[in-house]
Design goal:
Elements (H helix, E strand, L loop, with lengths): L3 E15 L4 E2 L3 E2 L3 E19 L7 E6 L5 H17 L6 E9 L9 H21 L5 H15 L11 E4 L13 E3 L12 E5 L10 H7 L6 H21 L2 H20 L10 H17 L3 E5 L5 E5 L4 H12 L8 E5 L5 E5 L1
Parallel strand pairs: 5-6
Antiparallel strand pairs: 1-4, 1-13, 2-3, 4-6, 4-7, 7-8, 9-11, 9-12, 10-11
Helix pairs in contact: 2-3, 5-6
């Protein structure tokens, strides 16, 4: 039995194209979601662990971006307590956790997805090391996705690279509300080299957290309509990915973004996460597309920032447009050059 050691994982964020918004049970989705895993937006989490004598609860310390962060520490504590019910062996350990993001926290780039998936991967690795368990990669990632989902629904998708589905979906074998499944081997190769240029309109804290927003869906008068729309769009988006239908893909992606933000406006109380610059960028994108006839699309997560999605064969034209027309509307001219990614990476294990 291993009594001490260190584990470190890098886990990416993801951008949902069919949105997860609203929960049932404990961290289960009202409708399926489909996402694209990123490369350059990630969380790196390191945990040094050692045996302790008090067997009641896991003891942990946390540094986020090199500093203490009380709200994030509270979220991590709740997650570790949930995971401990799955893995009682964690109660025998002290956990010294250090984590940092490569992108702005709480700005609508799914920081909880990368941070809690990284933590889930670390905790599962520690559990296996302490108990001397060997798992094959498929079972390990499936279990990690399940655990990550207990902390953040979107985190369940970040344990896989490429295109990912979370939520039971008609006609998709292996789909489940309990964990996500990878789709990349079913996707046309053109989509497996897609780019995501993330236009940072604001890197500040959101006015309302995603957790609060999910709770407000319970009383939203359009809840049932949203659930049905999400189910329908998940199936059709996966078909578009398989058939390389960029036009249908783009139509669904933009509708999903608009529908998500419509849920914010129709919640009680209502809230708005987009900024004036967000709308200006959207108008410029639509005008540019009308003029050039290029096939690209865009989406927003729960925040003001825009994810501009396009294929490799139009990259030069998109980069020129971003740098000449869009950066002036970004916060301090900032944007993140990202693309579809391979998934988490084990950085250290000793």
């Amino acid at each position: 039995m291993v009594r001490s050691g260190k584990i470190a994982w890098r886990s990416p964020s993801n951008i949902a194209l069919v949105k997860y918004w609203g929960k049932k049970g404990f961290q289960l989705p009202l409708n399926p979601s489909v996402s694209m895993t990123l490369t350059n937006c990630y969380t790196e989490t390191t945990i040094e662990f050692n045996h302790k004598n008090n067997l009641k609860n896991p003891a942990f310390s946390l540094l986020f971006q090199g500093k203490k962060n009380v709200p994030f520490e509270s979220k991590i504590r709740s997650f570790i307590e949930v995971v401990s019910k799955e893995f009682p062996a964690l109660s025998t350990l002290n956990l010294d956790i250090s984590t940092h993001n490569s992108f702005p926290h709480s700005a609508g780039i799914a920081s909880s997805a990368s941070s809690l998936s990284a933590l889930a991967l670390c905790l599962l690795s520690i559990k296996n090391k302490v108990l001397g368990i060997n798992m094959n990669e498929e079972d390990f990632l499936k279990k990690a996705s399940y655990l990550a989902r207990l902390g953040s629904g979107s985190a369940s998708r970040s344990v896989y690279g490429g295109w990912v589905l979370w939520g039971e979906t008609s006609g998709i074998e292996g789909s489940s509300d309990d964990y996500a499944i990878p789709l990349s081997n079913q996707v046309d190769e053109k989509f497996n080299s897609y780019y995501d240029s993330i236009l940072i309109v604001s890197s500040g804290e959101k006015a309302i957290s995603s957790s609060q927003g999910h709770e407000l869906m319970e009383s939203n008068p359009y809840k049932e309509s949203r659930v049905n729309t999400g189910r329908f769009n998940a199936i059709n988006l996966i078909d578009a990915l398989k058939c390389c239908n960029e036009k249908v893909f783009g139509e669904i992606v933009e509708y999903e973004a608009a529908n998500l933000h419509a849920m914010f406006l129709t919640s009680h109380p209502s809230f708005i996460l987009i900024k004036p610059e967000t709308l200006q960028i959207i108008n410029k994108l639509k005008q540019f597309r009308d003029e050039t006839k290029l096939e690209f699309t865009f989406t927003l997560d729960a925040g003001p920032n825009i994810h501009l999605l396009y294929s490799e064969d139009i990259r030069d034209k998109m980069l020129l447009f971003i740098n000449t027309d869009l950066t002036a509307l970004c916060e301090d001219g900032k944007w993140i050059d990202d693309k579809v990614g391979m998934g988490p990476i084990l950085i250290d294990s000793n």
